[in-house]
Amino acid sequence: MKLTLKIWRQKNAQAKGSMQTYSLDGVDGDMSFLEMLDVLNDQLIGKGEEPVVFDHDCREGICGSCSLQINGEPHGPDRLVTTCQLHMRKFNDGDTIVIEPFRAKAFPVIKDLMVDRSAFDRIQQAGGYISVNTSGNTIDANSIPIEKEDADESFNAATCIGCGACVAACKNASAMLFTSAKVSQFALLPQGRVEATNRVLNMVEQMDKEGFGNCTNTGACEVECPKGISLENIARMNREFLSASLKG
Ligand code: SF4
Ligand code: FES
Known about the structure:
alpha+beta, Ubiquitin-like (UB roll), Fumarate Reductase Iron-sulfur Protein, Chain B, domain 2, 2 domains, 9 helices, elongated, binds FE2/S2 (inorganic) cluster
């Protein structure tokens, strides 16, 4: 395949960025999207030009770092996959592909296609954990009976990889789907109930402080989420928040 790539280039957080056009030949349908960018970067380095900076780590849909806006969609045109799992067979010979960083005030661009998503880390640090006494009297988690349905829903919420596609997809740059997944994975389990009140209040407060927008129920986040995190988590977080506010 021969492709035209329109890629956002930005030297650093302060510089003004712009779209640059590149022509790339010999792209194989079995390449992943990131491998296609590797080929482009090899060619740029060969010509003595700066390679395109983009985030990646596991390249198997686990770490959540490969965050690219491809033709206007976070993680591109495929469903339930991350950018590293997207294959070039989803595109056609002669296509023009527009590649941008995830855009949100709370995700400032570091360079080119790489954004700073440490706002998510700070939301996690505000309450995305449980405190367990490890003095030797710890109760084995498997000895606490949990309804199968709750265990499954908690596990589903825990599959959120913190990629930020939900924020990039949302016209309000809301982080409600991410935060609600992190609240839900604990809210559904007895181990998580101990700190549930403070957890939801602190995590929502941090989310607001970071400058993410509000949820207006467009559902774009759920459509673009590579892990299929459900909007039901947002409803659960809202219930948790209301009950915590009344207690507080
Ligand atoms: S909810 Fe989905 S889209 Fe949002 S950070 Fe988690 S995995 Fe990514
Ligand atoms: S590089 Fe880890 S999820 Fe894509």
